[in-house]
Specification:
Chain lengths: 428, 423
C-alpha cells in the first residue's frame, strides 16, 4: 500500500494506491469546528446535495446516472466527532480496468463534482420540491429516535448530563432547528460552509494517482484559502457526585446508561491506550469485564455496550435489562471500573486483548471505508496510521492501563424505566 | 477437488466433499483475513420431523437455543476462550432455514478453522448451562420485542402464511424458551448436526490444499455416527394469504407498513429457478426501487418518508414485499396496489439494470464476507455454487421479463400496518 499526500493550494488530496480491491473509494471531506446553531444545516445540506443536482434534478435521474456508471454509489454522511463537524461525500466506483470505456474515469470524476458544485438551485434558493423531501425525511428521523430504546436512553442521558454540551446536541439538529431552515437560507449556508470549511479528498484504489489529481483539479473548483484552527476536543463538565436521574419509558425492558468523564488524558492515552482499556472493560465481546459480570456471571442481559467518545472525553455504558436488576447492574458496572483501577486483570488477559486489537487493525487493512476513516483522522488529528497503531498497542503496559482507569470519573447514571405493558397489542 | 470457475468473473471456487461434509473455498491472497462458516441445515422453521419412524415436535426457538449452547466446551468454558487466544472473532446466528457458526481471523487460520469444526461437532450440554443460557436468551428476546420493526416483521409473516413456521419468531417467544429442555436440545443436535447436513465455506487468504487436508484430518479423528434418516414435515400451505389486512399498534411515531404479494411457484412451472430469481429481482428493483416512477412520485408528493422493496423465495412461494413509512396509509397502499397491477419493464431499463447487477457481482469479490454469504446462499438453496449468473443475466430478454410479469397474480396481497399508540 502506497500512501501519498498532494498539497494543493486550497485543499489536500490523500491517496492510497493498492491492487487489493476491484472497487475505488473516494471521500470528499469538509470539516470545521462545531457551531450548535448550524449542525442541522450541515446535515440538511449534505443530504440535499446527494439527493439530486441541477443536471440530475430528480432523485431518479441521479440514480440512473450512477447505474450508467456501472453501479457507482454516492451518499453523504454528516457526523459530529468531539468539537468537529464533518460533511463527507462518499463515492465508490468500479476500477476502470474492468470497463471497456476510455472515458469512464473522466465521467466518474466529472459527475461527483457536478453533484457537489452544481446543486439544484434557482434564484439563489434550493429547489422547493427537493427541499421538502429532505426536510420530511429529517423530521421523521428526528421523531424516530423515540422508537429505539437505546437511542432514546442515550439521548435523554446526555441531555440530562449537560443540555448545553455539544456532546448532547444531536447531529441532525432538533425539529425547531430544521423548521427554521428555508430553501434560501440553506443556499446561503451552502455558499458559506463549503467556502469556509477545511477540505480534504481521500482516494483508495488501483489508480494512477497523479492522473487522478489532475482530473480532480480540472473538475473541482475549491478556490478559498482557509487556515483557521480546528479544535478537536470537548471538555465535558465533571461532577463531584454522580447525577442520578430517570424517566418512564414505553419499553418492556429498562435501559440503563452510565457515563464517565475521561479526565486529563494524554494524546497517547486517548489514541492508543484507550483502545486496549476499552477492549478489556467492555468492547472485547464475551471476554470483556462488563460482559462477564453482567451477562455470563449474573445473566442480567443479552449484551452490554461500551461507547467511547474519546474526542468528547466521555465513556458511556448501556445495557437493557429487567427493571428489578438495575440496581445490581449499577453495582457490577462500578465494580468493573474499580477492578480496572486496582489492576485486577493479568498479563495473559492483556495479551489476548492485544491480539484481538491487532486482528481488528488487520481487518481495517482489508476494508476501504475503514482505511479511509483511519487516514482521515491520521491526516487531521494526527492519530496513528493503522500499521503504527498495531506496533504501539503491543507496547502498552499494565501500569499504563491502571493509570488510565484512574482517569475515569463517574458523571451520571440514567435509567429509562420500563413500562410493564406490552408495546404491541393487536387490534384487528 | 473440483475447481468451479465463476464464468465471466475470473474467479474460482474450490470444492470437495470430505466425510460427507461439502467444503467450498474461495482464495484471495491480497487480503489479510479469513472467514470460515460452518453452516447447519437446521433453522427455526424445522420444528416437526420424523426420525427412524418416530414423529417429533420440538418447541419454537430451539434452533437458536442450541446455537447458544453449542459454544460450551464444559460447564464453565466456551469456545470463545479458545479463539480469544488468537484474537479471532467467533460468533453464530440462526435464521429461519439454517444456523451458521463462523470465525474471522487474520492469523493462524488453520488452528482457528480446526477449532471451529471441533466445537460445533463436539457438544457439551448440561442442565446447568441450559438454565444459564435460558435467562440470557429471554433477555435477548425481550430486547427484540422492544423493537417495533420486529413486531411488524413477524405479524406480517403471520398474515401471509397459514402453516409455514416463518410465522414464529426465530428466538421463540418467552413462554417457548421456558419450555425447552435438555432432552429437546440433545434430540435436535443428534438429528441434525451431522457433516452431511452441513457445509463449510472458507474465504480469504488461505491455501486450498491445506484447508482440505485439515478438514480430512479433523473429521478422520472424530467418531462420526451415520446420519439418521430424517424427514422434515412438509406443510401444505394454502395459496391465499392468511389475513389480507391487519393493523397493530406499537411504539412508533409514524405508521409503518408491509405489503406483500404471495405468488405460488406453481405459476412458473417451466422456468429455471435461478433465472426466475434474477428476473423477479429485476422486476422488483425496476418497479419499486429508486429509479421507479412510483418511488419518485411518493417522495415528491411527500407521501412517504421511507420505502424499500425486496423479493424472496419461501418454499413454494415467491414474495414481493414493499416496506414503507407513511402518514398516508390508505393512499399509499392504493398506489402500491396500482403498481402491482401495472408491473412493467422497458428495454433500456432492463439493459441498465443488468449492467449494474453485473458490476455488483464483480464487486462482491472485494469482500470475503460477501463471498461467504453468496456461496452460503447458493449452496443452501441449490446445493451448488451458481457459476453462470453473468451468462444468465446477459441472456435475459425483455420477452422473458414480460412473461414472468404476466404470470404474477397481483391480487393475493397481505397488508400489515403498525400504527402509533396515539392513533
Amino acid at each position: 500500500m502506497e500512501y501519498k499526500k498532494f498539497e494543493l493550494e486550497t485543499y489536500n488530496i490523500y491517496t492510497i494506491k493498492t491492487d487489493k480491491f476491484k472497487n475505488c473509494h473516494m471521500e470528499i471531506v469538509y470539516y470545521d469546528n462545531v457551531q450548535k446553531e448550524s449542525l442541522a444545516k450541515v446535515n440538511f445540506l449534505t443530504s440535499i446535495l446527494c439527493h439530486s443536482s441541477k443536471n440530475y434534478p430528480k432523485r431518479k435521474d441521479l440514480v440512473i446516472k450512477l447505474e450508467e456508471l456501472y453501479q457507482a454509489s454516492l451518499y453523504g454522511v454528516t457526523s459530529k466527532v468531539g468539537n468537529m463537524i464533518f460533511s463527507n461525500f462518499i463515492y465508490d466506483f468500479l476500477n476502470p480496468e474492468y470497463i471497456d470505456d476510455t472515458k469512464y474515469l473522466d465521467n466518474v470524476i466529472k459527475f461527483i463534482f457536478e453533484v457537489i458544485e452544481n446543486p439544484n438551485v434557482t434564484n439563489e434558493e434550493f429547489d422547493l420540491r427537493t427541499f421538502k423531501i429532505i426536510k420530511k425525511r429529517i423530521l421523521d428521523e428526528i421523531a424516530s429516535v423515540k422508537e429505539n430504546p437505546r437511542s432514546l436512553a442515550f439521548k435523554e442521558a446526555l441531555q440530562k448530563m449537560d443540555s448545553e454540551s455539544i456532546t448532547a446536541y444531536p447531529v441532525i439538529g432538533t425539529k425547531e432547528d430544521v423548521d427554521y431552515i428555508t430553501p434560501e437560507s440553506l443556499y446561503k449556508f451552502y455558499q458559506e460552509f463549503y467556502q469556509n470549511s477545511m477540505c480534504n479528498i481521500y482516494i483508495i484504489g488501483n489508480l494512477d494517482m497523479d492522473k487522478m489529481v489532475n482530473l480532480i483539479k480540472e473538475n473541482f473548483h475549491n478556490r478559498c484559502l482557509k487556515n483557521h484552527k480546528v479544535d478537536f476536543y470537548i471538555k465535558n463538565k465533571e461532577r463531584k457526585k454522580a447525577l442520578v436521574t430517570q424517566d418512564n419509558g414505553p419499553f418492556l425492558q429498562a435501559n440503563l446508561v452510565v457515563g464517565y468523564n475521561l479526565v486529563n488524558l494524554t494524546e497517547k492515552e486517548r489514541h492508543i491506550t484507550l483502545n486496549l482499556f476499552n477492549e478489556i472493560l467492555g468492547t472485547g465481546g464475551l471476554n470483556s469485564k462488563l460482559c462477564k459480570a453482567l451477562r455470563e456471571d449474573n445473566q442480567l442481559c443479552y449484551s452490554v455496550s461500551l461507547s467511547s467518545f474519546k474526542y468528547d472525553n466521555l465513556e458511556v455504558i448501556h445495557v437493557s435489562l429487567e427493571e428489578e436488576n438495575v440496581e445490581l447492574a449499577i453495582k457490577l458496572i462500578k465494580k468493573c471500573l474499580k477492578d480496572m483501577t486496582l489492576g485486577k486483570f493479568d498479563d495473559e488477559e492483556i495479551a489476548k486483548f492485544k491480539k484481538q486489537l491487532t486482528m481488528y487493525a488487520d481487518v481495517i487493512l482489508d476494508n476501504q471505508s475503514s482505511l479511509t476513516n483511519n487516514y482521515v483522522f491520521n491526516s487531521i488529528v494526527g492519530t496513528p496510521k493503522v500499521e503504527d497503531l498495531k506496533t504501539e498497542i503491543n507496547k502498552i503496559t499494565k501500569e499504563e492501563l491502571i493509570k488510565l482507569a484512574k482517569k475515569l470519573k463517574l458523571n451520571f447514571i440514567y435509567e429509562l424505566k420500563s413500562e410493564e405493558s406490552n408495546t404491541c397489542k393487536k387490534s384487528k | 477437488m473440483q475447481e468451479i470457475e465463476i464464468k465471466g468473473l475470473k474467479e474460482v471456487i474450490y470444492y470437495d466433499v470430505i466425510e460427507g461434509l461439502p467444503v467450498y473455498i474461495w482464495k484471495n491472497e491480497k487480503v489479510k483475513g479469513m472467514i470460515s462458516s460452518l453452516n447447519v441445515r437446521y433453522g427455526s422453521i424445522h420444528q416437526e420431523f420424523r426420525v427412524n419412524g418416530k414423529n417429533y415436535k420440538v418447541p419454537s426457538g430451539i434452533a437458536h437455543f442450541l446455537e447458544h449452547l453449542n459454544f460450551y466446551e464444559s460447564d464453565t468454558t466456551t469456545a470463545t476462550g479458545y479463539f480469544s487466544e488468537y484474537g479471532s472473532e467467533v460468533n453464530a446466528y440462526t435464521t429461519f432455514e439454517y444456523t451458521s457458526y463462523y470465525v474471522y481471523t487474520t492469523n493462524h487460520y488453520l488452528e482457528n478453522l480446526n477449532h471451529l469444526i471441533d466445537f460445533v461437532l463436539t457438544p457439551h450440554f448440561s442442565k446447568k448451562i441450559v438454565n444459564k443460557e435460558r435467562s440470557i436468551i429471554i433477555e435477548e428476546t425481550r430486547a427484540d420485542e422492544d423493537m417495533p420493526e420486529s413486531n411488524l416483521y413477524y405479524t406480517h409473516y403471520q398474515d401471509l402464511f397459514h402453516k409455514y413456521k416463518y410465522r414464529h419468531q426465530i428466538t421463540g417467544l418467552v413462554e417457548d424458551i421456558k419450555n425447552i429442555t435438555l432432552e429437546d436440545i440433545e434430540l435436535v443436535y443428534q438429528t441434525f448436526y451431522h457433516p452431511s447436513n452441513m457445509f463449510l465455506v472458507v474465504c480469504g487468504n488461505v491455501n486450498q490444499h491445506e484447508v482440505f487436508k485439515l478438514v480430512q484430518d479433523n473429521l478422520n479423528k472424530k467418531d462420526i455416527l451415520p446420519s439418521p434418516i430424517v424427514k422434515l414435515k412438509k406443510y401444505k400451505e394454502p395459496a391465499r394469504v392468511h389475513t389480507k389486512y391487519e393493523e397493530i399498534v406499537g411504539n412508533v411515531e409514524n405508521p409503518k407498513v408491509k405489503i406483500s404479494l404471495k405468488i405460488p411457484l406453481n405459476n412458473f412451472k417451466n422456468w429455471d429457478e435461478i433465472t426466475l430469481r434474477l428476473i423477479t429481482s429485476l422486476i422488483v428493483i425496476s418497479n419499486f426501487g429508486p429509479t421507479s416512477d412510483l418511488k419518485e412520485y411518493l417522495m415528491e408528493e411527500e407521501l412517504i418518508s421511507y420505502m424499500s422493496a425486496s423479493r424472496s423465495f419461501i418454499e413454494d412461494y415467491i414474495l414481493i414485499t414493499i416496506t414503507l413509512e407513511t402518514k398516508y396509509v390508505s393512499e399509499v397502499i392504493d398506489k402500491i396496489k396500482e403498481s402491482f397491477q401495472n408491473l412493467t419493464m422497458t428495454e433500456s431499463n432492463l439493459e441498465r439494470k443488468i449492467k449494474s447487477t453485473i458490476a455488483t457481482l464483480v464487486l462482491y469479490y472485494d469482500d470475503i464476507n460477501d463471498v461467504n454469504e453468496t456461496i452460503l446462499t447458493d449452496v443452501l438453496y441449490f446445493h451448488k455454487v451458481i457459476d453462470n449468473v453473468k451468462e444468465i443475466l446477459n441472456a435475459i430478454k425483455l420477452e422473458d421479463v414480460q412473461k414472468v410479469i404476466q404470470a404474477i397474480d397481483t391480487e393475493n396481497l397481505a397488508i400489515t400496518v403498525l400504527k402509533p399508540k396515539s392513533e
